[in-house]
Amino acid sequence: MKHLALLLLILSLSSCSRYKQANDIIDKAEAIVSHHPDSALLLLQSIHEPEALTDSLRAKFWLVNGQAHYNCNRSTAEDSLLKYALDYYKEHNDIVRTTQAYKLFAQHLWWKGDRAGAANLLHEGMETARAAQDTACTLQLLHSIITQSTGDENFEDAVKYLKELLATDRNAPGTYITYNMLGIAYYYLQQKDSSLCYLQKAYEAVNQPDYDLNSWGLVSRNYADILSDFGEHRKAIDIQREVLRRYLAANDKFASLSYSSLGRYYLNIHQMDSARYYMQMSKETYSPYIAQDLSLSNYYLIQNTLMQYISTNQFLIKDVTLFSNRMFEDYLNREKVIAEKNESKRVLEQRNLRLSIAKQQEQMLLIIVLLAVVLAAVLVAFYIQRRKKLLEEKEEELDTLKHLWADVEKTNNENDQFFKKILLQQMGIIRMVATNPTPHNQEFLSQMKRITQEDIPTDDLLVWEDLYKVIDSIYDNFYTHVLTRFGNVLNERELQLCCLLKANFSTKEISVVTQQSVRTVYQRKTTIRQKLNMDEKEDIADFLSR
């Protein structure tokens, strides 16, 4: 039992240690996932067999893993186990992580092409957050709904939810972003007044000393671009020149964008010299950051191609071809990455399947071993307990027999002495004493030999035919008398009990010599009294001797 307990303790401590280590890693990854998602992914990859973790750890692992993919702008199409995390946190009423799981699993569905499912999931999450009266979680899901609506070019829904966001969080520090997005959404809906109204609000909100250049520049460029598209070119030029001035003063990488926008404004008002100047300046300040963005590169290509046509009356295919080649290479690279990822996924699934089977086999073997150990321990314990009980019973019997033998030596009734001596001889008491060869028992054996003056057979059992004769001989034909009167009423066992009672055996002594329990002896005595119509406490031997 001690070995089993030690084994179970070792297994328990091993599991606890492994789970604690995994929990520490996941906590570290969660702490850095917002700012360092790549590092968070590396930490998570150090956990082998995340599917073998406890329910809580498994849910947290897949949640942080999905968040890391999202923050790295990676596809979440393979993060299907975010559904497990979502179900777990919903069941455990963790509204913060439930909200996060709703957002990430919706992103998973969006990547898989199920945009309707993604939208439904985000709305379900938002209702859950509202029911919990958690404003922060409600706003988080609102932002996700708005982002998806804009990405799907569903600007009517975008306007609806942006206004709901404003009503919920009107005094938030980032309200200017909501104003900016509303202005852009109305722009695509070609609602000039509403678009410019919200863009003006966004511009006024960020046109403050405490706002950083990136935030101010983004809102200001959007406002100027849309002003120009709605025909308010002069106002657009004034705002964009101020943006350019600040970019140049800060040596900012976005200066090229301001140059390009100004070129487009002047092109719209047919001031070609100014347009050419700003387009040329845009080329000279073209940054690697912008070159890596295909959408910006495409914008530059279109604008340059248009300027070339206006200047030369020719449409050259060279730049278009180069850009198309670049787009095709990018497509091939993405397809290659997808293929490699799918192959890695297939290999990983096979590996996980093998590991899962191996783990199940190990667990089954461990269960079998544990069951075998437990069963062996139970059997050993039962054997020890049984042996102990038997030894205690034998010791008690031996003690009773010793007292009985002592009575044989002490009693003044020669008849009782003679019968008891004969009975003890028949029982093979020598054998019983010999099985415990202590000095005291050896002395007891010597005493018996001195009394009988001969060796007592050790293999004999009680021979009642002989004992009945002894009873008749020393107790005035007691057995024959009882048999004659009550032989048709009492059975053999009951007749034997009557003889023992006549010889003055106690209930305990009778139990020992007949190998019956004390309870059984009492029950037989009660049965005899009932059969003979005796009183409950009347002496059986006296009754039968009358």
Ordered list of secondary-structure elements with their pairings:
Layout lengths: L1 H31 L4 H9 L9 H17 L10 H10 L3 H17 L3 H17 L3 H17 L3 H14 L6 H14 L3 H15 L6 H17 L3 H17 L5 H14 L3 H13 L3 H4 L2 H19 L5 H93 L3 H14 L1 H6 L4 H14 L11 H11 L3 H9 L5 H11 L4 H8 L3 H14 L8 H6 L1
Helix pairs in contact: 1-2, 1-3, 2-3, 3-4, 3-5, 4-5, 5-6, 5-7, 6-7, 7-8, 8-9, 9-10, 9-11, 10-11, 11-12, 12-13, 13-14, 16-17, 17-18, 17-24, 18-21, 22-23, 24-25
Give a structural overview.
The protein has 546 residues and is mainly alpha-helical. Among the domains are: 55-165, Tetratricopeptide repeat domain (Serine Threonine Protein Phosphatase 5, Tetratricopeptide repeat), CATH 1.25.40; 392-545, no CATH class. The chain has 26 helices and no strands. Helix 10 (192-206) runs antiparallel to helix 11. The longest helix is centred in the middle third of the chain and has 93 residues, at 318-410.
List keywords for this structure.
single chain, about 550 residues, mainly alpha, Serine Threonine Protein Phosphatase 5, Tetratricopeptide repeat, 26 helices, disordered N terminus
